């Protein structure tokens, strides 16, 4: 979905998508029809991360792990709409879930 490059146009050291693209475009690999996953994490933020108390921070990450419960998982309607938009655009997403921080999803 996105790559990160230096102003000179070179992939930054943590840009693993660029290296993966080279591997998966190799004809020997392409003919094998490999399956792979790229995880995209993001935090929902509208002036302040969703689910965080105004001007403060949420408690330790434990209760938010994998976003279970309506009092721990926030912004699911936005995440669901994003998932549907990606599928509509032809980006094959196999699933979504809350992560370890309030307002963070993958």
General description of the model:
This protein has 106 residues and is mostly helical. Helices cover 25% and strands 4% of the residues. It has a two-stranded antiparallel ribbon with strand order 1-2. The longest helix has 13 residues. The radius of gyration is 17 Å and the shape is globular. It starts with 15 loop residues before the first helix and ends with a strand. The model has no long low-confidence stretch (mean pLDDT 79).
Summarize it.
Helix content is 25%, strand content 4%.
Could you name the key traits of this structure?
about 110 residues, mainly alpha, two-stranded antiparallel sheet, 3 helices, 2 strands, about 25% helix, globular
Number of helices: 3
How would you characterize the largest beta sheet?
Answer: 2 strands, antiparallel
Sum up the overall morphology in one term: globular
Percent of sequence in beta strands: under 5%
- In total, the number of strands is 2
Distance between the termini: 13 Å
Order of helices and strands: HHEHE
Average of the residue pLDDT scores: 79
User: What oligomeric state do these chains adopt?
Assistant: single chain
Largest beta sheet: strand ordering: 1-2
Helix/sheet category:
mainly alpha
Low-confidence stretches: none
Q: Rounded to an integer, what's the Rg over CA atoms?
A: 17 Å
Which bin fits the share of residues in helices?
10-25%
Task: Chart the SSEs and their pairings.
Layout: H1 16-24, H2 27-30, E1 42-43, H3 76-88, E2 104-105
Antiparallel strand pairs: 1-2
